[in-house]
């Protein structure tokens, strides 16, 4: 793809909206974002919705300039998909953000002393056991140079970021809102500490975009996409952390789970399915280290000297700098005969309508929005709720399908 100016990418973002997988399907047909924007502007780009056509007609250069000026005033860097600074691992997930708004620096992900970039997730109201596990694991991982990526929420996210700060290692926080929105308010000081200590706070949303429940699923794909693996500290059977775990699996990344302290408690039993399916159980940080050190260094980490570990990190960096393989989109599976209808008891009218449409055939969010006339935020929020309930699943190619029971 030929490089395009920041102005072009921002115009594309304003017209197509963040988190829109259609953008990437369109980019594949053009040599650059500039060519795509020209085709959209001239009415020569097929398959646009009426809303997208309307935004293309109404979006002006002054709106783009205003975003750039506001970013400059708040020291927010704009990193586009064709920028060399764009994180290589993130670029190869399904539907990567076309624009990242970055406070601080992402260079820590590629620094010589970065042992491995690792996403860490868990609940906002963790159990005492989960708090102890998170502090122990993250503190130990940071000591060997692990760069932790998390979501800046209260609870486990805050513990993970704080362990990194206390260990003097950069950490990356991914926002569920625009960069200039104070959410969560409890994390404002933490965000500043992350930026000041060589890490980054990033968002794919426009600067003043508020928090919507449906966006968290999209945010979670970035958290898992920035790391080689994801560590789930604790999760209930309906936890949003499981969406991050799903993303990690779909992206071909490693999944690590702390085994539940009590299998009879719903609040910590969400990881059981993943452990049964092959996720790595984590009892101490060496369970994670072992997953990477043999692969990249030919032997396990066993308390080597700082000099030996430094050599390993250099080798690890060399391996990591190789381009990540693009995620291969699997062919659509044939429809399974005689599938039982999804039980919609307890669902509202909107959720039931979406389930019935998805039962007919797997569909993308765009197709469901066109079929229902819903606003994007309404549709995504309802789809996220249905996914957490285990009634639908998001396929790697970006379509929703009825979940297998």
How many individual β-strands? 12
Give the C-level CATH assignment of the largest domain.
Answer: Alpha Beta
> How would you classify the quaternary structure?
single chain
Largest sheet descriptor: 9 strands, mixed
Biggest sheet strand order reads 1-2-6-5-4-3-7-8-9
CATH architecture of the largest domain: 3-Layer(aba) Sandwich
How would you sum up the global shape? Answer: globular
- What is the helix fraction of residues, given as a range? 40-55%
CATH topology category name of the largest domain: Rossmann fold
The H/E string reads HHHHHEHEEHEHEHEHEHEHEHHHEHHEE
Low-confidence stretches: 295-337
Number of domains: 3
Count of alpha/pi helices = 17
Topology:
Blueprint: H1 6-16, H2 22-27, H3 33-41, H4 50-58, H5 61-73, E1 76-80, H6 88-91, E2 99-104, E3 117-121, H7 128-143, E4 147-150, H8 156-166, E5 171-174, H9 188-196, E6 200-203, H10 215-225, E7 229-232, H11 241-250, E8 254-257, H12 272-276, E9 280-281, H13 286-297, H14 306-320, H15 349-360, E10 363-364, H16 365-372, H17 376-388, E11 392-394, E12 399-402
Parallel strand pairs: 3-4, 3-7, 4-5, 5-6, 7-8, 8-9
Antiparallel strand pairs: 1-2, 2-6, 10-12, 11-12
